[in-house]
Amino acid sequence: MKMGVDIVEIDLHKTKDGQLIVMHDSRLDRTTNGKGEIAETSLEDIRNLFLKNGANMLTREKVPTLEEVLHFIKGKRIMLNLDKSWNFLDEVKEMTDKTGTTEQIILKGNKSAQELKKKWGINLIRWSICRWSGRKITAFTSVIKCWIRSSM
């Protein structure tokens, strides 16, 4: 954020006890002083770990939860692109509603904007959803069309 970026992409994983944490890898080995799969490790155990920097040196930084990150960005001029979050959509929506950060979230996944609006009644002005085909974004148009219709 100090660099002036508008969007930050973060990856989510679920711990053994069902907590969403921010971590790129599904394992702890490469980016922390821990070992093993995140899905097999409790949040309490992960809280005792330290993150490594780009030179593989331990830092004083800890692994944040999604909720901690949402509280940190609330009201700031930044958006979060939540990658690897599609399987946790219900929890993500509940958490963004709780923290008041829904308008700061971008999701990508394999469902159309219409499907999500029907299932969750999501206000598409507040949720930016795109579909992926391989590595290319193929449809922002349904979201943009909904946004334009809702704005008129």
TrEMBL record:
Q: Which GO terms describe its molecular function?
A: glycerophosphodiester phosphodiesterase activity
Q: Could you name the Gene Ontology cellular component terms for this entry?
A: plasma membrane
- Classification via PROSITE patterns: GP_PDE (PS51704)
InterPro entries (alphabetical): GP_PDE_dom, PLC-like_Pdiesterase_TIM-brl
Which residues are in the GP-PDE domain? 1-152
A Gene Ontology biological process term: ethanolamine metabolic process
Tell me the Pfam families matching this sequence: GDPD
Give the source's domain of life in one word. Answer: Bacteria
Q: What is this protein called?
A: Glycerophosphodiester phosphodiesterase family protein
Question: What are the top taxonomic ranks of the organism?
Answer: Bacteria, Pseudomonadati, Bacteroidota, Flavobacteriia, Flavobacteriales
